[in-house]
Amino acid sequence: MVASNLLLDLSARPVIAHRGASGHAPENTLLAFELAVQQGADAFELDVRLSRDGAPMVVHDATLERTTGLAGPVRARTLAELRMADAGRWFTPDAGRTLPFRDRGVRIPTLAEVLWSFPAMPMLVDVKEPEVQEAVRRVLVEEGATERCVVASEIDAALAAFREGPIACGASSRDIAELYLAVLLRRRLPQPRYRFLSVPPRHRGLPVPTPRFVAAARRLGCPVHVWTVNDPATARRLWARGVAGVVTNEPVRVGSARS
């Protein structure tokens, strides 16, 4: 049976834009997501954290220094303050020689803004902290985005709001470790509490999406998405292994490996 959301489809091979086309534009911004569409991405991956006044903001880091002109925790700033941050301040395509998006009005969007701006795009929403999960759930329901969006988190507690209900939930780090250990020791596979897995190529020096791991996930009916892959040859090998989605900063380059 083919899933209605390609992020849950075992037979699909989506190119998933990592924080948008973040190799070419400031990550997690509307500009990066629009560029990802132009580069042929099939879906977005994005990160969500909570503002001081309860708004789910699309930003990766817990603090603001790396990507914006502000400092300190995201949670210490209101929505209004975060909307004033220059989210293009530090982006550079050439190791700092130029900063083409500084002072160009590039802002941190809310989750709702991304959903409004791209009303048909499937999205993998990474819930970066437990405190934001209820706000994420509320926005996805209010915006009618529960079928095209899936949620994931490394933090098991950040997925509690999604274990039951209409929004497809990914595996936490604990879930991934349990499946990995079962595959390694040839034990009975654990009953999944999730509908897909989002994993890195390696963790602590060990390969994660091995052929046996991917095959086990597929037996459970769960597609495996691998982040972050920018090399077309690597993407090609992963797809040949049975991996579903490839999360990339370079949608054009990786997309070429699919043909």
Number of beta strands: 11
Tally of separate domains: 1
What's the level 1 CATH class?
Alpha Beta
| CATH superfamily heading | Phosphatidylinositol (PI) phosphodiesterase
Query: By helix and strand content, what is the structural category?
Result: alpha/beta
| CATH architecture assignment name | Alpha-Beta Barrel
| Average of the residue pLDDT scores | 97
- Determine the strand fraction and express it as a percent band: 15-25%
What is the fold-level CATH name, i.e. the topology?
A: TIM Barrel
Report helical residue fraction. Answer: 25-40%
Rg over CA atoms: 18 Å
Largest sheet: 9 strands, mixed
What does this structure look like?
With 259 residues, the protein is of the alpha/beta class. The protein has a single domain, classed as Phosphatidylinositol (PI) phosphodiesterase (TIM Barrel, Alpha-Beta Barrel). Helix content is 26%, strand content 15%. It is built from eight helices and eleven strands. It has helices at 30-38, 79-83, 111-117, 133-142, 173-184, 211-219, 232-241, 251-255; strands at 15-18, 43-50, 56-58, 123-127, 149-152, 168-169, 197-199, 202-203, 206-207, 224-226, 245-248. Strands 1, 2, 3, 4, 5, 6, 7, 10 and 11 form a nine-stranded mixed beta sheet that branches. Strands 8-9 form a two-stranded antiparallel ribbon.
